[in-house]
Design goal:
Number of helices: 12
Oligomer: single chain
Structural class: alpha+beta
Pfam family, one: HATPase_c
CATH topology of the largest domain: Beta-Lactamase
Domain Histidine kinase: 237-450
GO cellular component, one term: plasma membrane
CATH superfamily of the largest domain: PAS domain
Transmembrane segments: 7-30, 152-174
CATH architecture of the largest domain: 2-Layer Sandwich
Largest sheet: 5 strands, antiparallel
Order of helices and strands: HHEEHEEEHHHHHEHEEHEEHHEE
Distance between the termini: 49 Å
EC number: 2.7.13.3
Number of strands: 12
Radius of gyration: 50 Å
Length: 450
């Protein structure tokens, strides 16, 4: 069952329950009020009857006349019986059909008593007079109460049916109106095509939870679109880059197998094939790293950033002279806690290694400056080289896999290292800025989150 129908059904059931409870309360309150009023009328009848029968000898004709008029004006539906202190009938308007001795005893004990049997109402009054103690019993049926009860039930039933009909119609309409944005979004989702951009849903601003849901869904779609584009470009680039070393290997082996050659030629061919195979291995390792970044980022630990930098310098010193790298640690000992960072050590080592290695490679014989400092309570790293630089038109593509600048053809590489490094920084929420001027400098600035 759809949510829209569930809302209509649940709202109707809840309203029906509330209306039913309210109707019962109204019915009981009305019935009790009517019954109390009628018992008061029977009590008045009992008093008038007692005075009419027992006070005649004590009052003058003028004083008794109002009582007599009131007695004769009593309702014909009311039957009056008066019992003396022995329980015998002293006066009645109609013969009684059962023994009332038990009720007479209760009336004497309580002074007055209201009770009902089926649709017949009774009021008993204990009346003390100079002639003795008497019990007055008034019996009556009230068709008016029963008629009012039936009419009230009918009114409540009709009101219930009308109210439920209106409620169902209104709830159905309002639920359709409330879920119209959801239905529109569902239609848009069904029409989404990954090959068409932008991959976004349109909606009207409503400043409510639905808008927050749509915003979250659009954020997810944006990530899907980015991931899909990256995957598509990744497949295109990787297939192209993998073909180059594979084609070179195949070509070298085919040439070597065409005719007998000297050992020195086989050694040269083997060396070239080994070099291409190593390049192919490096590309595959980078591809695997790039595809597993999101999974590996989950494994984080607390580490010292400066220690990672020194480890990288030590490793690169096997290839470059020690004076190539100029490290400046500008963090005071009391602020060394700023050097602590929670992240994946392997990925951060790889990212920083790629940045520093690129700086060393593209600066040739010129030094690389690495500055570690604290600014605005945030750890900052600045990697500066004075090499070939990056062309302005190439800067916007620097994070794409396999992208290499137009001025890097004379240097070995595959364009994966920097894209992996920037992706690692992004996953660690490390903000990066790359500025460059061809043939002058390239500067990478990293700002670690607090």
């Amino acid at each position: 069952m759809k949510i829209q129908k569930k809302i209509t059904l649940i709202s109707s059931l809840l309203f029906g329950l509330v209306f039913l409870v309210s109707s019962v309360i109204i019915y009981v309150a009305f019935y009790q009020s009517s019954k109390n009023i009628y018992f008061q009328e029977l009590s008045r009848t009992a008093k008038i009857s007692a005075m009419f029968y027992l006070e005649r000898d004590e009052l003058s004709q003028k004083g008794f006349q109002p009582i007599q008029d009131a007695f004769y004006n009593l309702s014909a539906d009311q039957e009056v019986s008066i019992f003396n202190e022995n329980g015998s009938i002293a006066f009645n308007t109609k013969e009684l059909e059962k023994d009332w001795s038990e009720k007479i005893t209760q009336i004497k004990e309580k002074g007055n008593l209201n009770f009902r049997e089926d649709d017949t109402y009774y009021h008993g009054l204990f009346y003390q007079d100079n002639q003795g103690d008497f019990v007055v019993l008034v019996k009556a049926t009230n068709p008016l109460i029963q008629g009012q009860k039936n009419r009230l039930i009918g009114i409540l039933a009709i009101s219930f049916l009308i109210a439920m009909t209106i409620l169902i119609v209104l709830t159905s309409y309002l639920s359709k109106l409330a879920y119209k944005p959801v239905r529109d979004i569902i239609k848009q989702v069904n029409r989404l095509n990954l090959n068409k951009t932008p991959l976004q849903l349109s909606y009207n601003s409503s400043k409510d939870e639905l808008e927050e849901l749509f915003q979250a869904f659009n954020s997810l779609l944006s990530e899907i679109e980015t991931g899909y584009e990256q995957q598509k470009n990744f497949v295109d680039f990787s297939s192209h880059e993998l073909k180059t070393p594979l084609a070179s290997i195949i070509n070298q082996l085919e040439i070597a197998l065409k005719k007998e050659r000297e050992n020195i030629e086989y050694q040269q061919t083997s060396a070239r094939v080994l070099q291409e195979a190593q390049q192919l291995q490096q590309i595959l390792e980078h591809l695997l790293t790039l595809s597993n970044l999101n999974r590996k980022i989950q494994y984080k630990e607390k580490l010292r950033i400066d220690e990672i930098i020194w480890q990288i310098i030590e490793k690169l010193s096997e290839v470059y002279p020690e004076e190539k790298f100029q490290v400046k640690l500008e963090v005071l000992p009391e602020d060394f806690s700023a050097l602590l960072f929670k992240g994946n050590e392997t990925l951060l080592y790889m990212a920083l290694f790629n940045c520093i290695e690129n700086a060393a490679k593209f600066s040739e014989t010129k030094p690389v400056s690495i500055r570690i400092f604290k600014e605005k309570n945030q750890l900052q790293i600045e990697i500066l080289d004075h090499g070939i630089g990056i062309l302005e038109k190439d800067l916007k593509y620097i994070n794409q896999p396999f992208f290499r600048g137009n001025n890097t053809s004379g240097f070995q590489g595959n364009g994966l290292g920097m894209s992996i490094a920037l992706k690692v920084f992004q996953l660690h929420k490390i903000e990066y800025t790359i500025t460059s001027k061809p043939q002058e400098f390239t500067k990478i600035q990293l700002q670690f989150p607090q």
